[in-house]
Amino acid sequence: MAQHSNRKRPNILVTGTPGTGKTTTSSALAEATHLRHLNIGDLVKEKNLHDGWDNHLRCHVVNEDLVCDELEDMMEEGGNIVDYHGCDFFPERWFDRVIVLQTENSVLYDRLSKRGYTGDKLTNNIECEIFQVLLEEAKESYPEETVVALKSDTIEDISRNVTALTDWVRMWNPTS
């Protein structure tokens, strides 16, 4: 796998359907590894990297070009954990590891309902998980050896994932 010689620390993408634990996992991993946690949803709001609001799905319409422009320098530098529910618009060269979090449907349903998801927004996200849309998207967008699917149903799962990823970051060697 081609790595950038100027990157001393890896970049990790944590993706998955909303409610799979991306932010919880990314925050814990950032704390354990001292990598920078970049929550794309927050970044889009803070820096206005969107083309307005989608009333039907109750979310911003992300401007992918603006997001990529905003992240370019940080990603070249390395040491980032990018937290987002999509992955196919990021440049392949940015990531050394792509984590797809997966959650059992009943667990996911409860998590999203607690967040106030209803109607199409709830249905769309549950179907996205059932059909493993994000895992397929990741496999189509990144080298196979980079993509790892991890179970994220419980606090124990998240804890185990963070430990495994922390070990991976510690062993990561940009010259290998």
TrEMBL record:
Interacts with small ribosomal subunit protein uS11. Not a structural component of 43S pre-ribosomes, but transiently interacts with them by binding to uS11. It comes from the Eukaryota. It catalyses: ATP + H2O = ADP + phosphate + H(+); AMP + ATP = 2 ADP. Its EC number is 2.7.4.3. The lineage of its organism: Eukaryota, Viridiplantae, Streptophyta, Embryophyta, Tracheophyta. Gene3D superfamilies: P-loop containing nucleotide triphosphate hydrolases. ATP binds at G19, G21, K22, T23, T24, R115. It is an enzyme of class 2 (transferase). Coiled coil: none annotated. Residues 15-25 have a biased composition (Low complexity). Residues 39-62 are annotated as: NMPbind. Residues 1-10 have a biased composition (Basic residues). Keywords: ATP-binding, Cytoplasm, Kinase, Nucleotide-binding, Nucleus, Ribosome biogenesis, rRNA processing, Transferase. Its main location: cytoplasm. It comes from Cephalotus follicularis. InterPro entries: Adenyl_kinase_AK6 (IPR020618), P-loop_NTPase (IPR027417). This is Adenylate kinase isoenzyme 6 homolog. One of its GO terms (biological process) is ribosomal small subunit biogenesis. Pfam families: AAA_18. Belongs to the adenylate kinase family. AK6 subfamily. It is found in: Cytoplasm; Nucleus.
